[in-house]
Amino acid sequence: MDLSRITTDLKQWSKALGFDSIGIAKPELAADEAHLLRWLQDGRHGTMAWMPRHGRKRARPAQLVPGTVRIISVRMNYLPPNLEPTETVLNDSRRAFIARYALGRDYHKLMRRRLQQLADKIQAVAGPFGYRVFVDSGPILEKALGRNAGLGWIGKNTLLLDREVGSYFFLGELLTDLPLPADAPPDDLCGSCRACIDICPTAAITGPQQLDARRCISYLTIEHQGSIPESLRPAIGNRVFGCDDCQMVCPWNRYAKPTDEKDFHPRHGLDHASLVSLFNWSEAEFLNKTEGSAIRRLGHERWLRNLAVALGNGPADSEAIDALQQRLDHPSELVREHVRWALERLLAVSPSQELAD
């Protein structure tokens, strides 16, 4: 078996499958394991109970998939073309900001299918071999593995950064027992820049490569199941699904390349939607318009929770107040709590309308 030839072919095959970059990593994650354990010990994972569930195995691929000696890591750009600047949406408090990665179809199935096709191509040349496909689907440290594979360095915002394309990309992996020639990690090029730390609306980035998920807007609006802490709600602004602020200000994202993958282009006008229009979706509309989207994992209840917070941070106009009033008797206590909070804020500014009983 010519492993060097397979490695060369991998680059051609991955490009044909729509991957923007590929690298090969050794599973050497001792420092990352120590970082993870400290993070978990400090409780910075919040309510994400699955994070500590696998313990050290998350940093030990060979324990997760026995026989693993290399990780093939791939990258796929997701930034849709012709988008308005993130700042434009964030500065319009009547509009909903949705993280750029979630405007189109969910990436998991697409990347998993193409990684399987990549594995099939390897098998056609190398014969049967051991492997397992991962696309954000198992307990592995994908950013650390991407770094080891030469796809970027881990920036101060904890995201993987590449000097040529920035950070707007998805990652996927093939854990394999083929001892392919490994790539080398790149240099850390963040230097003295701390733009991502300074911009974070909730001060969730507490230092270089130090993220407190409990304060992170992406965690609060996506992963967190319960009530959003009142002290953090005003800082969320109009962000209803995720947050891209630390990517928006990163100097390396000046080089971000728009994706050619049509599945990642915006659907249902989510890149221009108003808060009120989304808040007025019935559950049936929500399920229909988020089919195949990462947003659907929220469920209608948390979708309304997030939108209520955003409406409460917006202008106290009659349209917003009327929409919130219509949800005061929602069956979910979680929704009712956030709706009442939003109404109290808006009516404090516009007291001519009364809070319904």
UniProtKB/TrEMBL annotation:
Alphabetized SUPFAM superfamilies for the sequence: alpha-helical ferredoxin
Leader sequence segment? none
UniProt KW keywords: 4Fe-4S, Cobalamin, Cobalt, Cytoplasm, Iron, Iron-sulfur, Metal-binding, Oxidoreductase, Queuosine biosynthesis, tRNA processing
Q: Which residues form the 4Fe-4S ferredoxin-type domain?
A: 178-210
Q: What is its EC number?
A: 1.17.99.6
- Spell out the catalytic residues: 136 (proton donor)
Chain positions recorded as [4Fe-4S] cluster 1 binding sites? 190, 193, 196, 250
The metabolic or biological pathway listed in the UniProt record of this protein is: tRNA modification; tRNA-queuosine biosynthesis
Show the GO cellular component annotation of the record: cytoplasm
Locate the residues binding cob(II)alamin: 58, 136, 157, 160, 171, 218, 243-244
List GO BP terms, alphabetically: tRNA queuosine(34) biosynthetic process
Cell location: Cytoplasm
What is the cofactor note?
Binds 2 [4Fe-4S] clusters per monomer.
Q: Which Pfam families match?
A: Fer4_16 (PF13484), QueG_DUF1730 (PF08331)
Which residues hold [4Fe-4S] cluster 2? 200, 216, 243, 246
Q: What reaction gets catalysed by this protein?
A: epoxyqueuosine(34) in tRNA + AH2 = queuosine(34) in tRNA + A + H2O
Q: Which cofactor does it need?
A: [4Fe-4S] cluster; cob(II)alamin
Q: Quaternary structure per UniProt? A: Monomer.
The protein's job, in short, is: Catalyzes the conversion of epoxyqueuosine (oQ) to queuosine (Q), which is a hypermodified base found in the wobble positions of tRNA(Asp), tRNA(Asn), tRNA(His) and tRNA(Tyr).
Task: Show the HAMAP family listed in the entry.
Answer: QueG (MF_00916)
Q: What PANTHER family does the database record attribute to this sequence?
A: EPOXYQUEUOSINE REDUCTASE
Q: Mind telling me what this protein is named?
A: Epoxyqueuosine reductase
Q: What is the lineage of its organism?
A: Bacteria, Pseudomonadati, Pseudomonadota, Gammaproteobacteria, Chromatiales
Instruction: State which gene encodes it.
Output: queG
